[in-house]
## 1
Amino acid sequence: MEKMNNNRARSLRQVRSSRSRSKRGVSPVIGVILMVAATIVIAGVVMAMLGGFTPPSATPPSVAVTLQAVNSTHFKLVHSSGDTLLANEWQIGVCKAGESPTYKSVDRDFKVGQVFIVGNTTDLANPSGLSLPGTLSSDTYEVYIKHLPTDALIISGKRITVG
């Protein structure tokens, strides 16, 4: 009986020691699994933030321009309200109604309250404007203003009759 008790005690010690060894072995494995899981979660959050980030798209300026005939060979654009059109960031196109416009770059700002003369500007006292080859004749024209950074038409086919 004593031998049986000794064997039983030994097997109990072995079971306890194997449990304690296995507990010690499980703890590092769980720690490694948790660290890997945390790394994956952090990487996912970073990718979601950076992958989903797109820079805001540029929007074209908003302007209100009125067209007024000056005489039979000129008309003017008056910047009534809205954003300033910055020099070299906009083009103006003028054509007879129904035709395709040819755009010219403009090297000066166009701010609220300013006037922009279209025609043969050498004839006029106000030299700021767009000089077209020859002069405008009595006809209906369409005006287009294009914003270059966004490649958007700010004004599209606004009509003016000259003459």
Note: Confidence is low (pLDDT under 50) at residues 122-127.
## 2
Amino acid sequence: MAPYIFMERNGIHIIDLYKTQAKIEEAANALRQLARSGKKVLFVATKKQAKNIVAEEVSKVGMPYVTERWPGGMLTNFATIRKAVRKMTNIDKLMVSDSYLNLSKRERLQIQREREKLDKNLGSIADLSRLPSALFIIDIIKEHIAVAEARKLNIPTFAIVDTNTNPNLIDFPIPGNDDASKSISLILRLMTQAIEEGLGDRKLAKDKSQEDSNEDDDAAEGGTRSFDVEDEDNKDARKPATDDANRAKRPRRPVSKK
């Protein structure tokens, strides 16, 4: 972390905020590009100071997040995690069916507890149908398993790195205090704003392409109609010429002499 430390005072390292600002802009541009491409970014923050902040900010942009215990093998053994998510979906279907009412009270209670447990651990990633395109991590020491799995699968990582961490493990490190809720909230808000901008650009591009395709269809239909009108005009123009030709070919009747 030496390149990002401004000075040391009373045994406390002070981070250079100019470098923090530069890294924030770099990470925001990368996240904006990912969102513009329609890719998912998984946010990981299981520490107490960051849980509620991540759940509140990230849910606004519709990205998946993990705020409870990181399930080991979530990335390297993603198929098993998807089975657990499907199990949660099957429980939801069972709870609204008629057969659920025929179960005993004890069985219904067991199903409800299992559903709550699955929802607590996997509810925020229920819509994640494939591996995320990037990870945003708060406190890479606490989330070292997530960092290791992402590095193993070559998934880009973004993270808030404090003075006691190694920024070389992260692709887009952001120097900052990962223990202060205000610092976490500020950086996270800037990241989610960049993602929101990327999603907005993607929506505008889709709308524009849809409008262009509609205009092309209208132009094609207009060209077909004008072609038909021209054919009708040419047909009408040819009719008199054909009638004159028929009159010329018609034999004259002999004139009787009196």
Note: Residues 48 and 147 are 19 Å apart (CA to CA).
